[in-house]
Amino acid sequence: MSPSFPPIQTLPFSGYSVVNQWKKWLLCGQFIGIIFRRVMKTKRTKIKSLLDSPEIGAEINVKGWVRTKRGNKFLNFIALNDGSSINSLQIVVDLEKFSEELMKDVTTGACLSVNGKVAKSQGAGQSVEIQASEIKVLGVADPEAYPLQPKKHSFEFLREIAHLRPRTNTFGAVFRIRHAMAFAVHKFFNDKGFYYWHSPIITGSDAEGAGEMFRVTTLDPANTPKNEDGSIDYRQDFFETESNLTVSGQLEGELGALALSDIYTFGPTFRAENSNTSRHLAEFWMIEPEMAFYDLEDNMDLAEEFLKYLVQYALDHCAEDLTFLEKRLIDEEKNKPAVERSEMTLTEKLRFVAENDFERLTYTEAIDILRNSKPNKKGKFQFPIDGWGADLQSEHERYLVEKHFKKPVILIDYPKEIKSFYMRVNEDGKTVGAMDVLFPGVGEIVGGSQREERLDVLLAKMDEMNIPKDEMDWFLDTRRFGTAPHSGFGLGFERLIIFVTGMSNIRDVIPFPRSAGSMY
Ligand code: ATP
Ligand code: MN
Q1: Could you say which of 120, 139, 158 is where a domain stops?
Q2: Which of 30, 64, 271, 499 could connect to 82 by a Cys-Cys bridge, CB 3.0–4.6 Å?
Q3: With contact defined as beta carbons under 8 Å apart, do 184 and 218 qualify?
Q4: pLDDT tens track for 218-277
């Protein structure tokens, strides 16, 4: 006979239920603990939300870093900043209530947690202040060693302490605006029904960036496996083929557009170009929309609408930071000779771009203007313009934008020899449907084109320009199977930020700039 076990249902009445009871009590205890701590601890208020809607008389907690401390024997005034806003919060400290010991640690750069009451401020420069009742120093900053003292530091100096410069007013403003612009990029495209498409960052194709690419490898540089002819045997490398960091997400973006209609990429881009200018980085971010069924004119319309949208977004959402940067620029301009001073303030410039049409003209028309321009005739250009066919240098682009038209310019129909293989050949057989958008103070901000969708024309062009066709088979398949007219462009994100913030060096609009010869 088999032994008889109690039926399963009776189990909860035995040992299990005791365990369950314990669990309940434990959970209950934890819950009470959480409530208790919540009640005892005042929730932190961000300085921005406090300044936006202050509640006079409220007891609050704020946390942040000391910008300055000043005062007299009886009172100290601390400017506390938590990065949520360009504005610091004034903390009033009655020295009778706080020990000298504690106040000694309240120095520029130190991190504080402050409890106190919100009060109307008597002093100039702020509407509210906090009357401190409790101050905790969360982190000291030895004044002998802390490099960010409350005085004007040069951008060159601050680049050397890139890890600390976000704590300055200028860089705080720049990086908050950078965030707002990134958000606006996604909003613009999402609202238009574009899909965010992730082109790869590691690529096997080097069709675009021959010579300017960063190699990705796990081979030991001191001991690379060799082919019989002495060249490196990449079949033994990680991907079993040569691989690089991307110089553009476009080619893979085209695959997305020819399936989803409208896509955009927004990702890091790498170019090992040795141009040590204030407009080039080795690691930068690029936004590349790609649209099926768009011709060059649709492409220009989208680029213009997009740039105006971003600039307007900054005006609408970053007013305080822009005002701060504008004042900084006005101060800086005072040191310049009158002729070099700009005619418009930063926000005037932004408004001008948001509200006026861009000038559109062909490369050929631009060459005519440049050839007959004063600086060309007087030999002022470093690269004189004498004929059709030369690539435009930034001095030429800036002349057109800043001196001749005094507004953004879209140049189209460039000679095919100076542009990429994938740009669509125009009927004249000499030019391609390229478009560059040129901005004041920046030069080229956008580069784009209508793409060559005709397989035979594209193949001939690749032969002409020595582009390896076998490696590009995946790309050519889009032209073999259901090809479609399409267009796209690339916006350099940092160049946009240069324009919007009025900063003059691209190294000062990205948290950690990487360029030839330097890694901050
Ligand atoms: P440039 O002539 O200024 O070097 P490009 O012709 O190489 O530009 P594209 O290949 O068309 O530029 O890239 C699209 C956009 O990416 C440019 O319009 C620019 O805004 C940005 N860009 C290009 N190179 C860099 C770089 N090294 N650093 C930052 N942004 C860049
Ligand atoms: Mn370039």
Answers
A1: 139
A2: 64
A3: no
A4: 999 999 999 999 999 999 999 999 999 999 999 999 999 999 999 999 999 999 988 789
Q: What confidence tens digit (pLDDT) does each residue in 21-40 have?
A: 777 777 766 766 666 555 55
User: Does residue 421 share a domain with residue 342?
Assistant: yes
Choice from 410, 444, 493 to test ligand 1 binding pocket (greatest atom count within 8 A of CB):
444
Whole-model pTM above 0.85? Answer: yes
**Residues near ligand 1 (Cβ within 6 A):** 271, 273, 279-281, 284, 286, 444-447, 490, 492, 494-495
Q: Are residues 348 and 435 in the same domain?
A: yes
Residue 484 tokens, joined: 């479609």
> Does 498 reside within a domain?
yes
| Same domain membership, residue 208 and residue 123 | no
Tokens representing 130? 């906090």
Residue nearest to atom 10 of ligand 1 (CA): 447
In angstroms, rounded to a whole number, what is the distance separating the alpha carbons of residues 101 and 457?
A: 79
Q: Kindly give the distance from the C-alpha atom of residue 102 to the centroid of ligand 1, in angstroms, as a whole number.
A: 52
Query: CATH number for the domain including 118?
Result: 2.40.50.140
Residues 6 or more apart from 30 whose CB is under 8 A from it?
none
* 183 plus 80 within the same structural domain: no
Q: Which domain holds residue 134?
A: 47-139
Which atom of ligand 1 is the closest one to the Cα of 445? 20
| Same domain as 459, residue 413 | yes
Q: How many CA atoms lie within 13 A of 192 on its CB side?
A: 19
